[in-house]
Amino acid sequence: MKDRTPVLVSAFVYPGGGQFLQKRKLAGTLYALVFTLFLVILFYEVLRPLVANVNAALDWAAEGKNEEFRQISFAGVLLTFLAALITYIMNLVDVTRAQRTKAPHPPPLP
Question: Is the pTM of this model over 0.90?
Answer without folding.
Answer: no
